[in-house]
Amino acid sequence: MNLDNLYQEVILDHYKNPENKKLSIQKDVQVHHLNPSCGDEITLNLTLEGGLISDLSWEGNGCSISMASASVMSGLLTGKAPSEAMHILDSFMELMQSKGNSKGDENLLEDAVAFAGVSKYPARIKCALLAWMAFKDASLQIQEKSK
Ligand code: ZN
Questions:
Q1: How far is the CA of 21 from the centre of ligand 1 (A)?
Q2: pLDDT by position in tens, the chain (length 147)
Q3: How far from each other are the two terminal CA atoms of the chain, in whole angstroms?
Q4: How far is the CA of 56 from the centre of ligand 1 (A)?
């Protein structure tokens, strides 16, 4: 099995068995984001506790890439400090802008490196980034609230 197939399996697995795909009742912030070019949508709940991301739950509809990316992201960022989560987000953004030339930092991105191949397909990059942009929006809103 080559790497591309392995990565496809990771994406399909997250699509079929998504992590944190059930909106929490309590939340600090809720955001709703759309990717009109594909029809993907996501609602994301974010809660911080003790300076860490204690809850990152979501609900959504869309293609396998957008839903799998939301699953991977929620698993990866839960329990992290917001600054660390932003660092991971920046690394994922860089990977998506790499036009297929980067493999991604597996220490930082873990399963999210499976989306490396998506960066070759401009039309799908927005699918992979949807959940991450929703997270970024929610984080900024939390910062505003706590001022
Ligand atoms: Zn999509």
A1: 17
A2: 566 787 899 999 999 999 999 999 999 999 999 999 999 999 999 999 999 999 999 999 999 999 999 999 999 999 999 999 999 999 999 999 999 999 999 999 999 999 999 999 999 999 999 999 999 999 999 988 877
A3: 51
A4: 20
